[in-house]
């Protein structure tokens, strides 16, 4: 029987128009993604959006209704999961509780027909790779959550997979350990040159670990782009609201000229902004701007609008202000905490010079 490629070169992974149905419900709706060799792609979205189902299609645990999955151009849909040469790390790690660390790492190798010296060499190599060489004889219950995760990662890496799949592997870890493990996994992935898919609902995790992010909603991919492009230039209101924090200000388009839109905000300012493709030349719009892209001022101006200041909260290195606009919209403004002036009444708000706001048509 044909098996998936097994050499160490990084692989391309193409997901072509994949659809998965559970009865009448569409779990994955015609998703296509092309993942480059050695790239980390995050599948990001809320619970029930189809990201884990798509991961399981690639792994061979779920059969799609239509579409193809290819590794280096060769289809792998006909192969059972154990012949796809794909490593997977589950959210709960799925370690065998009665096996030692070394036995857990060796399990996949034995299942693939490896024998004595080869198994021992690879177990030693990958336990050292994840810095657990001294823990080989311990049972999973004798390890911390982070150590268990590293055992699961070593087990996935030991079979030298063509593709690495990570199914919310950091969800059970506390915040500090989660960051440490994200860095460690990224380091290992770069060192080994593995093409990797990470499933997560944590936007910070996706932004920090992934080379590109596929934002999913109701079984579809709404945007597949770099973390910076998704944050700065969201293509839909869903992506805009799911990634980061944003303020939505209602307004109307007065004119579009030379690629620039004149927008009258309900909050009271008139702004000239780049007009996205397809923006109607008149009608309601929503202006989306990140809290750190707004500024407060004590002096009025033509592109500023009046606000009523509310609470101010110190959040790490930032000071986040809550304010209310003249039309009753509550917005948030963030500025560096140590640079924020004290005792100055600032009742006007506007866009910072480097702001990159987004405009979306407003449904009536």
Explain what you see.
With 364 residues, the protein is an alpha+beta fold. The protein has 2 domains: 228 residues, 3-Layer(aba) Sandwich (Rossmann fold); 117 residues, no CATH class. 23% of the residues lie in helices and 35% in strands. The protein contains 8 helices and 20 strands. A 6-stranded mixed sheet has the order 6-7-8-3-9-10, with helices on both faces. Strands 13-12-11-14-20 form a 5-stranded antiparallel sheet, with no helix packed on it. Strands 15-19-16-17-18 form a 5-stranded antiparallel sheet, with no helix packed on it. The N and C termini lie far apart (58 Å).
Q: How big is the Rg?
A: 25 Å
Judged by helices, strands and strand pairing, the structural class is alpha+beta
- Give the overall average pLDDT: 90
Summed up, the domain count is 2
* Share of helix, binned: 10-25%
- CATH topology (fold) name of the largest domain: Rossmann fold
Helix/strand order: EEEHEEEHHHEHEHEEHHEEEEEEEEEE
Low-confidence stretches: 1-7
Number of helices: 8
Question: What is the β-strand count?
Answer: 20
CATH architecture of the largest domain: 3-Layer(aba) Sandwich
Strand order of the largest sheet: 6-7-8-3-9-10
Biggest sheet layout: 6 strands, mixed
Please give the CATH class of the largest domain: Alpha Beta
CATH superfamily annotation of the largest domain: P-loop containing nucleotide triphosphate hydrolases
Q: Ends: how far apart?
A: 58 Å
Strand content: 35-45%
- Tell me which oligomeric state these chains represent: single chain
Shape: elongated
